[in-house]
Design goal:
4-stranded parallel β-sheet; about 500 residues; single chain; 6 strands; alpha/beta; two-stranded parallel ribbon
């Protein structure tokens, strides 16, 4: 009893010592053991809690509640397999024990046994239809499985039982976001903020969703489209920045991801110095954050800081959403050393636009006495062969034997050439052009188009990108071109490929 009084007075360690003394005098008192277990749990001493509950089970092997409590303690110690067995033992003693089924589901989620976890949740709901925790667990499982509609229903059911739990509203917002139901995601995150205004991650999630709304409107998702504007842009962009800043205010040591995302939206707002600071903070928190390196590199290139920019740009290969992957060629990667009398394999990356842009560096590479072999899409081979004294190999799904030739001295991606060939603005090619069109085809097309135009101004147009990641902000609708296309003194040629 003195131990219980000590615990109520906030002296937990004294309480534990006193109750252990009581147990030394009378070792098999179940109420002493339960009191000790409860105080140890509150103190976070779960290894000892497990020992106490195992002692209780020896004295009282038929208690389903004790097995359930043992499972909870084992779960806290990340001993999930043992925790699951404890819950199964509890259920065997009491098949209507809904809390044991609920706890079992949470542990099975950790064990990645999601189908069994769903069965446990449904059994708990069958026993007790208003079990808030079970619906949350069920939502988490469906969310992990990508069954977003089922997850939404589960979270909404949980909120019908307890409507003021910020974490569940936040989880619901996550699923709405994954389902591209952005307006509903915003509402869910805002509700979470209204309930609990001090959770940094919720503000971060809101910042992300507001930026996605901006991109959805076609206002641009990267630095390549900084010149594009939207009538709706200022509100979404400024609100996104404010939410990221609030997340950082709540938790200045928050994840590098939040600082990286803040850098993205600040860059979109043309606050380039602040954007760079955000990326640099992200890298102080996590020096291996690939996206922050890549974004900082892109920003530095935009500002003309080519030396540092290209170095950070090399981190693109570690970014999960970067559209290209590094092939495993045998040759060593070129490190900028002298290539006179050597050979180099250059393989293309990203889209055709990027590849033709980076091809401008072939002239600089050819200033050395070097043999260049280029792996590129088949449709670029004739263009590259006309424009440069190089050998081209078509890019296939399986590598050509010519690419594996050990006699080739070096290899490099086409974009990675820049760190050695374009260290400053003065090193960029100054010629009027570097690509050569086919003279015969050019003449034929010019004659045909001028005949069709009958003296009008000849204009070629392209308005749609099919890139699944960044195509939307780089595309427009022809309806938006109505006034331009109605000009009577102009003749327009459709240069768009694909079914449009």
């Amino acid at each position: 009893l003195l131990g219980l009084v000590s615990h109520q007075s906030g002296q937990s360690e004294t309480a534990i010592t006193l109750i252990k003394q009581a147990l030394n005098i009378s070792p098999n008192q179940l109420n002493y053991l339960h009191n000790l277990a409860n105080i140890l749990k509150e103190s976070g001493q779960f290894e000892e809690v497990v020992q106490v509950y195992r002692q209780v089970i020896q004295l009282q092997p038929g208690s389903a509640e004790t097995y359930n409590n043992l499972g909870v303690s084992l779960h806290k110690l990340n001993q999930f397999q043992s925790a699951a067995q404890a819950y199964y033992d509890a259920i065997e003693l009491n098949s209507e024990y809904d809390q044991a089924y609920s706890n079992l589901a949470a542990t099975l989620i950790k064990l990645k046994q999601l189908d069994k976890a769903i069965d446990a949740c449904l059994k708990a709901i069958e026993i007790s239809a208003d079990n808030f925790t079970v619906y949350c667990n069920l939502g988490n499982i469906y969310k992990e499985q990508g069954k977003f509609e089922e997850a939404i229903k589960s979270y909404q059911q949980a909120l019908s039982i307890q409507p003021n739990i910020a974490e569940v509203h936040s989880n619901l917002g996550d699923v709405f976001k994954e389902s591209n139901r952005l307006d509903e995601a915003i509402q869910a995150y805002q509700r979470a903020i209204d309930i609990h205004p001090n959770i940094a991650q919720v503000y971060s999630n809101m910042g992300s969703i507001l930026y996605e709304k901006l991109v959805e409107l076609g206002s641009g998702s990267d630095f390549h489209t900084l010149g594009v504007a939207s009538l709706m842009e200022p509100s979404y962009l400024r609100e996104s920045i404010q939410h990221y800043q609030q997340a950082i205010k709540i938790d200045p040591d928050c994840s590098a991801e939040i600082y990286n995302n803040l850098g993205v939206v600040l860059g979109r707002e043309r606050e380039l110095d602040q954007s760079a600071q955000a990326y640099q903070t992200a890298l102080r928190i996590n020096p291996e954050h690939a996206e922050a390196h890549y974004n900082l590199g892109t920003l530095l290139l935009l500002q003309g800081n080519f030396g540092n920019g290209w170095a950070h740009y090399e981190w693109r290969w570690k970014c999960s959403k970067f559209p290209s992957r590094k092939p495993n060629f045998l040759q060593p990667t070129w490190n900028g050393s002298n290539l006179n009398g050597k050979s180099i394999l250059v393989w293309t990356e990203q889209g055709v636009g990027d590849q033709t842009m980076f091809a401008s560096m072939f002239h600089s590479l050819l200033q050395m006495d070097v043999r260049i072999i280029v792996e590129c899409p088949k449709r670029l081979i004739s263009l590259f062969n006309r424009s440069f004294p190089i050998s081209c190999i078509p890019k296939n799904n399986s590598a050509s034997q010519r690419l594996l030739d050990p006699a080739i001295d070096y290899q490099s991606s086409i974009g990675s050439l820049a760190q050695w060939l374009l260290p400053d603005e003065e090193s960029f090619p100054k010629g009027p052009s570097y690509l050569k069109a086919c003279a015969d085809k050019t003449g034929e097309l010019r004659d045909e188009y001028q005949r069709l135009a009958m003296g009008k101004l000849l204009i070629g147009i392209s308005w749609k990108s099919v890139n699944k990641d960044i195509g939307k902000p780089k595309s427009t609708s022809l309806i938006e071109w109505k006034d331009l296309l109605s000009q009577k003194d102009c003749f327009f040629i459709n240069l768009q490929y694909g079914d449009v």
